[in-house]
Write a structure and sequence with these properties.
Shape: globular
Oligomer: single chain
Number of helices: 13
Radius of gyration: 21 Å
Bound molecules: adenosine-5'-diphosphate, magnesium ion
CATH superfamily of the largest domain: ATP-grasp fold, B domain
Helix content: 25-40%
CATH class of the largest domain: Alpha Beta
Structural class: alpha+beta
């Protein structure tokens, strides 16, 4: 059975690692990284080279293609593969709008009564600015389209709202993602995320998680792709999970069904919990990075089976069984990240750092004649599993302490 994984980050290393454990021998990864190379055959095809990926999948008779990042989904890779009769895990371009258009997702939630902060959608800067004069602050301004996690700005006063609106809609700092814009009520609380797998008609739970977006301890410093994660989320009680199931997941499945949107793939629900009530901030249409690095090592059951059911729209053969322990993932980033990441530094101590229930997931790494070097902003994700978060974080940080590269940056407070 040949499997192709698309992507080159820690998320994709975690996916490749899990399916290798499930007993899959022939794994290809496009384009992969130095860690993935040890488990799979990496092929230098770019993630948005849909024709190239399609040709490769046909030539190698790929049984299942698993898409990691959102870019190829948004470019319609799933539609292109389906046209050729190939099995691919992920939503169609239309269904991927749940992530690629925040206004689409918000309107859907509003129509079906899914709790989400109140919002207005604008296509003209003048109207947005007029509206900004009537609301209270802080407020949240969001570019509608994909903006690499940079398109959401919390503004604290009218003048900042006006300059943000102009940046997004007139100066187009996020390109076409800013053709349409949203202004949302700012709510406070604690964030968590929840992952489910859908086969187009029903869904099964994967797990909850939490991620750390800021570069520095105590949530200081600039936003990043994510500096750490844990699973399950320590912020979700069984009572909250039931509210999420009843008020969010089941109305969402109903909404997709009623709107004729065939959603196959993972749905990542970004939540804010305020006063013990969950509210949806956003949906993503793929596994999160670095949440996946904390979730997948907890999965005991076979992953390829359920991903294939989801991809083919078949009834799920099984639910997902999780280890009840906690997983903590600490991301190590290169010097200069996230503004000017420096690469080409030698990474030492990798072999010493691994151990039982410790997983070293590579992201921006490359193998130069047997020497592993940094090759991107986020370099490694070190996940450990322990009886509780405290035990898991201690184990993860013990490993992190053994890994050395020039100017490495990591947070000390993941899981604290
Ligand atoms: N309505 C809101 N109230 C308060 N904080 C918000 C709100 N919407 C978004 N945020 C904050 O901004 C972050 C990014 O917003 P999100 O909608 O997840 O967009 P993206 O991940 O595409 O950048 C969230 O993780 C949250 O911290
Ligand atoms: Mg988000």
């Amino acid at each position: 059975m040949n499997i192709l994984v698309i992507g080159s980050g820690g998320r994709e290393h975690a996916i490749v690692h899990k399916i290798k454990q499930d007993g899959i021998k022939n794994i290809y990864c496009a384009p992969g990284n130095a860690g993935i190379e040890e488990l799979a055959q990496c092929v230098p095809i770019k993630i948005d080279d849909i024709d190239g990926l399609l040709r490769f999948a046909e030539e190698k008779k790929i049984y299942l293609t698993i898409v990691g990042p959102e870019l190829p989904l948004n470019e319609g890779i799933v539609d292109a593969f389906h046209e050729k009769g190939l099995t691919i895990f992920g939503p169609s371009k239309q269904a991927a709008m749940l992530e690629s258009s925040k206004s689409f997702a918000k309107k859907l939630m509003k129509k079906y009564g899914i709790p989400t902060p109140a919002f207005e959608v604008f296509t003209s800067p003048e109207e947005a600015i007029d509206y900004a004069g009537t609301i209270s602050y802080p407020a949240v301004i969001k570019a509608d389209g994909l903006a690499s996690g940079k398109g959401v700005i919390i503004v604290h006063e009218l003048s900042q709202a006006i300059s943000t609106i102009k940046d997004i809609m007139e100066n187009r700092v996020f390109g076409d993602a800013g053709k349409t814009m949203l202004v949302e009520d700012c709510i406070s609380g604690v964030e968590s995320s929840y992952f489910v797998l859908s086969n187009g008609s029903s869904c099964i739970n994967v797990a909850s998680a939490r991620d750390y977006k800021r570069l520095m301890d105590n949530n200081d410093g600039p936003n990043t792709g994510g500096m750490g994660s844990l699973s399950p989320s320590d912020k979700l009680t069984p009572e909250l999970e039931k509210k999420i199931a009843d008020r969010i997941i089941s109305p969402l499945m109903n909404a997709l069904n009623k709107e004729g949107i065939m959603y196959r793939g993972v749905i990542y629900i970004g939540l804010m919990i305020s006063n013990n009530e969950p509210s949806v901030l956003e949906f993503n249409v793929r596994f999160g990075d670095p949440e996946t690095q904390a979730i997948l090592p907890r999965i005991e059951s076979d992953l390829v089976g359920v991903l294939t059911d989801s991809a083919k729209g078949k009834p799920f053969s099984d639910s997902i069984k999780l280890r009840q322990e906690s997983a903590v993932c600490v991301v190590m980033a290169s010097r200069g990240y996230p503004v000017h990441p420096q690469t080409g530094d030698t990474i030492e101590g990798l072999r010493d750092a691994s151990g039982k229930d410790v997983f070293i997931f590579h992201a921006g790494t490359k193998n130069e004649k047997g020497i592993i070097k940094t090759a991107g902003g986020r370099v490694l994700g070190i996940t450990a599993i322990g009886d509780n978060i405290k035990a898991a974080r201690q184990k993860a940080y013990r490993s992190v302490g053994k890994i050395v590269f020039e100017g490495s940056q990591y947070r000390r407070d993941i899981g604290l």
